[in-house]
Amino acid sequence: MREPAVDCRPVEILLVEDNPGDIRLVREALKESKVTNNLHVVMDGEAALAYLRRQGRYAQAVPPDLIFLDLNLPRKTGMEVLAEIKADAALQPIPVAILTVSRDEEDVLRAHNLHAACYVSKPLDLNQFMAVVRTIEDFWFTIVKLPPNGSQP
Q1: Which of 63, 69, 73, 112 could be joined to 45 by an S-S link, Cβ 3.0–4.6 Å?
Q2: Beta strands 96-100; 118-121: pairing state
Q3: Using CA atoms, how far apart are residues 153 and 69, in angstroms rounded to an integer?
């Protein structure tokens, strides 16, 4: 088992997901994590951008170290959110992991062209879904070296 980074602060994760069942599964998968984390949840694309820009009710939001982003969202699609994140110099460095039911090759290509860090199709099986979330989290927080939370280029 790899040891987490020396930094002892919790990892901040923003989950942008409108399905309460998937939110619960991600929450459960991260509870069993070997990396201490804080999961913040917003349920639509406009709320995601307000959170990331610390606007309105999200003025005190903690900048995330990683974003789990669904594509099928109300008010603003995941692709629109991804495009805005990667067009904003302050938000660009935050890795965005697409976590969606879509297996459409056009969605995969478009997400990668918009600089998503990875594209993962949600498994339908409960145990596989939780394993996928743990694997993503393990990769991003025990293998990859991320810039300090809230850092700007």
Answers
A1: 73
A2: parallel
A3: 22
Note down the domain range covering 50: 12-137
Record the pTM: 0.85
Domain-embedded: residue 6: no
**pLDDT tens digits, one per residue of 6-32:** 456 788 999 999 999 989 988 888 887
Q: Kindly state whether residue 35 falls inside one of the protein's structural domains.
A: yes
Question: Rounded to an integer, what distance in angstroms lies between the CA atom of residue 17 and that of residue 70?
Answer: 6
**Does the CA dihedral 73-128-109-149 come out positive or negative?**
positive
Give the model confidence (pLDDT) of 91-147 as tens digits: 999 999 999 888 889 999 999 999 999 998 887 787 788 888 878 877 877 766 666
Residue 49 sits in a domain of what CATH number?
3.40.50.2300
Tell me if 56 is assigned to some domain: yes
